[in-house]
Amino acid sequence: MYYVEAPRGLAAKALDYVRGRASERLRGRLDDRDPDYIREVLPLLWLISTFYFRAEVRDLGNVPPDRPVLLVGNHSGGNVIVDTFIFSLAFSTYFGVERPFHQLAHNLAIAWPFAGGMLRKSGTLSASHEHAEEALATGAPVLVYPGGDWETHRPSWQSDRVDFAGRDGFVRLALDAGVPIVPVVSIGGQETALFLSRGARLAKGLRLDRMARLKVLPISLALPWGLNVGDFAGHLPLPAKITIEVLPPIDLEREFGPAPDVDEVYAHVTAQMQEALDGLAAERRWPVIG
Amino acid sequence: MRLGESTQVAATPETVWYILADPENYLRFMSGITHWEVVGQKPNGLGARYRILIRVGAAEVGGLVEMVEWNEPFDIAWHSVTGVDHRGRWRIRERGEGRCRVEYRFAYGVVGGGVAGMLMQLGAALIVRRQMRRTLQQLKRQVEQEQRRLEAERRRAARQVAPA
Lengths: 290, 164
Description:
The complex is a heterodimer of chains A (290) and B (164).
Chain A: H1 2-27, H2 35-52, E1 56-58, E2 70-73, H3 82-95, E3 102-105, H4 107-111, H5 115-121, E4 124-126, H6 129-137, E5 142-144, H7 148-152, H8 169-177, E6 181-187, E7 194-197, H9 200-205, H10 208-212, E8 219-222, E9 226-229, E10 243-246, H11 252-256, H12 262-283
Helix pairs in contact in A: 2-3, 6-8
Chain B: E1 2-9, H1 13-20, H2 26-29, E2 33-39, E3 49-56, E4 59-71, E5 75-80, E6 86-96, E7 99-108, H3 114-161
Antiparallel strand pairs in B: 1-7, 2-3, 3-4, 4-5, 5-6, 6-7
């Protein structure tokens, strides 16, 4: 009996260890963020953003300098979310890498062997209400993309459309944490490849929604793969001009009273973002070139 | 990376100084500057501090700077205290006949980043040099306009003192 129990104990410990490590990787911790690492990667991000994507980030002064806020963005670019990197660069140079700043991302992105580590050091946490509340409680601004995989894989011809698919968790989060919402609108990310379809039916048929929290199995034409199904390994983005605009903060209690209606706030925020996105779209003359 | 640009201005060093010493003017003539805010009680002079931001490519870079030289009406120099490591200098030298030479020097460094850091310095130099040239053109225009205004004021005063 003794000889049978010992290996079982070891196996259980090993399993616990692997489970613990996996859970840690999936989660991303607040103190994983490393300002020195961010300072090291800023030059590369700046080069790519400036010369490859000709990026422009406007009105960062709308982000209050001294209090936590919930930055709500529209998500673009498939799994290669260049606008997020560009915004993070702009935020870090504007406020300094010392100001804590967190972004929420899908579990799969955080768990990715190499990129996941980079993301965690950059302050990325796995997307959950608790993680966002925890980060906001420390006074850090938090960037969320309510549209998630649904929005980032929308067809390229819907590039100028804000589509959160009714996900209003961000409103509840802002209300629970008592922080203003600062909308962040970007355009150009959906032109880094030719996104053809979300493949929502395909994902449902393959039960990806249950197994990996994936509502979509996108189909696109992208470099270097050609036909790209899933975009799991990412793609080489086309040099689309990326423009990002930060809108004025929305103080929910001041604008909607002491007990704001979630649907009303959701409609207001998405309408404001759509209006700003329409403005950015009107400035563009050519796809990719901008 | 050290950059320098200069221009001849049809004005006295005192007129150039009058424009450069006032922090409110910086947003008017400095190309690429998006933010120039006085931090603390001292608006100008040695030890005055400003929070500045300059748009360089995809990012607004800058931080807190402090005036470390204030030699009226010839030299103004500042160093960064926080943010991107840089220093700047205005050098004004008289050239006679109511003219002077204004030199704008700007030096910056990128901490870390390896090869990307070096490339960033070179890439940023292209943008910053262009901004420096435009800054000098705008400063020249503003200073010469101020000089003309001062001369007109002097003529008016002279006419009032000794009417024909």
